[in-house]
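User: quick one, fold this
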Amino acid sequence: SIVLALALLAGSAHAFLPSRSSRWGGGRTMRMAVSTVEKDSEGLEYVSLTHKSGASSKVFLFGGDLTSYVDAEGTEWVAVRPDAKMDGSKPISGGLSHCFPQFGPGDIQQHGFARNVDWTVEDLGESSCTLSMKPSDYSKEMWDKDFECLFSVSLTGESCDTKMVVKNNGKESFDFQAALHSYFDISSIKKTSIGGSFKGATFLNKMLDPPADETEEREEVVISEEYDRVYKGVNDCVLKDEGKGKALKIVNSGGWKDTVLWNPYGDEGMGYDNFVCVESVAFEPVPLEGGKSWEAELKLVPTKL
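Assistant:
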């Protein structure tokens, strides 16, 4: 495996320098913070991040997908479905899955192509990483734009911080949609509620045929049927899990302006009872001029109920 071991000397602010034997360094014994690139049992590469607090995360290069965030107390907050394929044959069903440059159905394939291409490691830091995705022959057949996406993950003792950047490296403007189709680990859907600015909000209920706008009457959403709802303008959700005895603040800023709630209620094969998708979304197409960039940040902050 390609390994970068970054460690702080006790009582010192200096990190070990990378060894010259590897692109990413390595060969030193880590004590506190580490970032490594490894392979899982099915052969997919992932970045493993560990913070000195004990918090950890895993980010697969395939799809640029963050599939695990364990907080400093040892609680896992990110879910991967039991039916997920982890061999690269299809997008990973779980994690903070990227939807770009399209969300849902449209002119190109469902949710775009970002979740089923290999991203590249641009930087490994102390408990952090940055991955990039650029045009390929595969993507150009669907969407021939001069773009670059950067996805950064940084662990602290209190949170997992992510940042998505979309760059237009060409001269002509293009429009795009983007989302993190985030799967969150829960003890049970029956013990979980989602708080936020829901009461009075208009949402698109995609379970109706045809989909239609409705008004949310509740302050906290409890899921007891199949859900696929787009809450435009709601981006301050809090996942409350009585089974875990903890909550997770899903703190969106920048371009993440909307939230989608999704759960295949009753589908045992998908493991519906142990995850809920609280997705960070730019639902309306975003126009991006040549030479400009767009940014969105998601911070996951565990807290007490």
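User: anything notable?
Assistant: Helices lie at 137-142.
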